[in-house]
Design goal:
Strand order of the largest sheet: 7-6-8-9-10-12-13
Radius of gyration: 26 Å
CATH architecture of the largest domain: 3-Layer(aba) Sandwich
Oligomer: single chain
Largest sheet: 7 strands, mixed
Helix content: 40-55%
CATH class of the largest domain: Alpha Beta
CATH topology of the largest domain: Rossmann fold
Number of helices: 14
Shape: elongated
Structural class: alpha/beta
Strand content: 15-25%
Number of domains: 2
Length: 342
C-alpha cells in the first residue's frame, strides 16, 4: 500500500505543478504524458502487491501425501514469496468431507486449488469449472475423472501431476524378490478407483507370467484387518498398490502380515516404510514441487491450465525396508536403496 500511496501522491503533485504553470499546448501535452507515466507507475505498484490465496484439500494424512503438500507449498512460496497464502485442510479420509472442503474453497473464491489425492480431485472438479485445480498424487487422471482414451491433457480448469509408477516393473519386483512364490495376493481399497486400475494392470502382468493372483478388497479402514488376515493366510506374497486408505492403515496391516511372515511389495514408499519389504517409488516431495511450479506459472499468467499436460515423476527408485527384510529373512539383490526415515 505504501508504494501505491507514493505513486498516487507523486502523480498528483506532477499534475498540480503543471496546472499551476499555465495551459499552453505544450504544457497540456506534457501534463498528459506525465499523467500517463504516473498511471503506469501506479499500475506496476498494484501488480507488485497482488496477493494470492491457494486452497489445499488433502484427502488423508500419511507420509506420501504430506510430502507432496510440503513440496507444493515450498515451490510456490519460493516463486511468489509472501504474496501467497494457503488455506490448507485435510479430509481425514472422508470423501464427503473433501466435498465440503472444496465447496467452501470455491465459496471463498480462492485463486487456485491443490487437490491432493484422487478423491480430493474428484471433489474439486465437481465444485468448480472456473477456479484452476491442480491435482497431485493422482495415479491416473482418465480413471479419476472418467475420461475415455485420456490423451494426457484434461483441459478446462484441471491439470496436475501423477504418481503412477511403472506398474509392469513393480510386478517384476515381486518375481525378482520372491522367485519361489506361486500365489500373489493383491490388497486394496475398493472405494479407490485408481487402486483398482493399478491392481488390474499388475494382476494381468503377473498372470501373464504364470502366477496365480488372488484379489482382496476392503471397503474402508474398519475391515482392513480381517481382509488382511484372510489374504496372509492364503498367499505367498502380497502386493499393495498406491492406495490412500492402505497408507493410512499401515500399522494395522503390519500387525497382521509380519507375524504371518507374509512379505509385502508396496506401490509407494509410505506403505513400504510401514509394512512393506520393497517398492519402486517416486519422490512425493519432488512431485509436489513440480505441482507448485505449475501453480506459479498459472497464477503469474505464464501458462494456460487448459493446455497443460499432466506431468510425471521421471526417475522412480527401487527401495527396500531393512528392518522388515531382516525380520523376514529377505535377501535384497543389487540395485535397491535402503530406506531411511527422515
Amino acid at each position: 500500500m505504501k508504494k501505491r500511496f507514493l505513486a498516487l501522491t507523486m502523480a498528483a503533485l506532477m499534475v498540480a505543478s503543471l496546472t499551476g504553470c499555465g495551459s499552453t499546448a505544450g504544457d497540456a501535452s506534457t501534463a498528459e504524458t506525465t499523467a500517463a507515466a504516473a498511471a503506469e507507475t501506479t499500475a506496476a505498484a498494484d501488480a507488485s502487491e497482488k496477493t494470492y490465496t491457494v486452497g489445499i484439500c488433502q484427502f488423508v494424512q500419511h507420509v506420501a501425501l504430506d510430502a507432496a503438500t510440503k513440496g507444493f507449498k515450498d515451490a510456490l512460496t519460493e516463486a511468489l514469496g509472501s504474496s501467497v497464502t494457503f488455506d490448507e485442510q485435510n479430509a481425514a479420509g472422508d470423501a464427503a468431507t473433501a466435498t465440503t472442503i472444496c465447496t467452501n474453497l470455491v465459496a471463498e473464491n480462492v485463486d487456485l486449488i491443490l487437490a491432493n489425492a484422487t478423491p480430493s480431485l474428484q471433489s474439486a472438479a465437481a465444485a468448480t469449472a472456473e477456479i484452476p485445480v491442480l491435482g497431485t498424487a493422482i495415479t491416473e487422471y482418465g480413471v479419476a475423472l472418467g475420461i475415455d482414451n485420456f490423451s494426457g491433457v484434461v483441459g478446462g480448469n484441471i491439470s496436475g501431476t501423477s504418481d503412477l509408477p511403472p506398474l509392469d516393473q513393480q510386478a517384476g519386483m515381486v518375481e525378482e524378490l520372491f522367485p519361489e512364490a506361486k500365489t500373489v495376493g493383491i490388497l486394496y481399497c475398493s472405494a479407490e478407483a485408481n487402486s483398482k486400475y493399478q491392481a488390474e494392470v499388475v494382476q494381468a502382468t503377473l498372470e501373464g507370467d504364470g502366477l496365480t493372483v488372488q484379489v482382496y478388497t476392503f471397503a474402508d479402514s474398519n475391515d482392513i484387518t480381517s481382509v488382511a488376515q484372510e489374504a496372509c493366510a492364503n498367499v505367498d506374497v502380497l502386493y499393495i498398490p498406491t492406495d490412500n486408505t492402505a497408507a493410512s492403515c499401515v500399522e494395522a496391516i503390519n500387525n497382521v502380515a509380519l507375524p504371518a511372515k507374509t512379505p509385502i511389495v508396496a506401490g509407494e514408499e509410505g506403505i513400504m516404510a510401514g509394512c512393506g519389504v520393497a517398492t519402486l517409488s517416486i519422490d512425493y516431495y519432488g512431485l509436489g514441487r513440480t505441482t507448485g511450479e505449475m501453480a506459479a506459472k498459472i497464477l503469474k499468467g505464464e501458462a494456460n491450465i487448459s493446455e497443460m499436460a499432466i506431468e510425471y515423476y521421471p526417475n522412480p527408485v527401487k527401495e527396500y525396508n531393512p528392518a522388515i527384510c531382516e525380520e523376514l529373512g529377505v535377501t535384497v539383490p543389487e540395485g535397491y536403496e535402503a530406506y531411511t526415515a527422515e
